[in-house]
Amino acid sequence: MTLDRFYPIFDSLAWLERTLPLGVKLVQLRIKDMPEPALRPLVAKAQALCRSHDAVLVVNDHWRIAMDAGCDWVHLGQEDLDDADLVAIRRAGIRLGISTHDHNELDRALALEPDYVALGPVYPTILKKMKWTQQGLDRVAEWKRLVGDLPLVAIGGMTPERAARAFAAGADIVSAVTDITLSDDPEDRVRHWLKTTR
Questions:
Q1: Tens of pLDDT, residues 143-163
Q2: Which uninterrupted H or E stretch holds 7?
Q3: Sign of torsion, CA 89 91 94 117?
Q4: Is the pLDDT of residue 126 over 90?
Q5: I need a surface site. Which of 42, 80, 133, 164 has the fewest CB within 10 A?
Q6: pLDDT tens, residue by residue, 160-183
Q7: At what angle do helices 160-169 and 136-147 cross, to 10 degrees?
């Protein structure tokens, strides 16, 4: 299965409702601080919405909820891996993306045979406080050499202009968050992303 090259990450169903009609085909739902009972119906709605738009939904972290909602993909950070039942995830036929920031994390991720690996932050990011400084394009190229045919997602400080450079360095997919959510016209920004990544 070939994933779309543009991979926005959103923290609410409302963002999916706004962007999927524009042609987004790969999207991550990343909701961190919500009680599970409230999150369950939301993930189910997100999955139905993505299916209706022929798009792939990736659920961040909440693999049990994703499994119960019949989702096809989960994304796990390194800390999430500590608690996840990877055997159960695989048994359910769910594909797996894993975040990496250094060589040890990449080694750990590759040993788990993920369906994509993410590297970040490629550029400085304002999304969350991180102990890693920007990775840069040389690291993108190095990661691509190390992961081979496995899809490589570049994330962190991405704009459409920077995305072109990330693709040139070896990224297969580019992920964006605040470039869209903080835009004065998010819909127009998404259209610009779609035009420049396809």
A1: 999 999 999 999 999 999 999
A2: strand 6-10
A3: positive
A4: no
A5: 133
A6: 999 999 999 999 999 999 999 999
A7: 50
CA distance 49 to 133: 36
Question: Quick one: pLDDT at residue 128?
Answer: 58
Catalytic residue among 30, 95, 139, 189: 30
- Annotated catalytic, 90? no
Establish whether 198 is a catalytic residue: no
Sign of the torsion formed by the C-alpha atoms of 79, 80, 82 and 83? positive
Residue 152 one-letter amino acid: L
Residue whose C-alpha is closest to residue 39's, from 60, 21, 24, 25: 60
Tokens of 115: 């369906």
- The residue type of 88 is A
Look up residue 1 and give its two tokens.
């299965």
Q: What is the pTM of this model?
A: 0.96
Task: List, for residues 53-88, the tens digit of each pLDDT value.
Answer: 999 999 999 999 999 999 999 999 999 999 999 999
- C-alpha span between 115 and 112 (Å, rounded): 9
Q: Is 52 in the active site?
A: no
In the set 32, 128, 129, 145, the catalytic residue is: 128
Are the C-beta atoms of residues 110 and 97 closer than 8 Å to each other? no
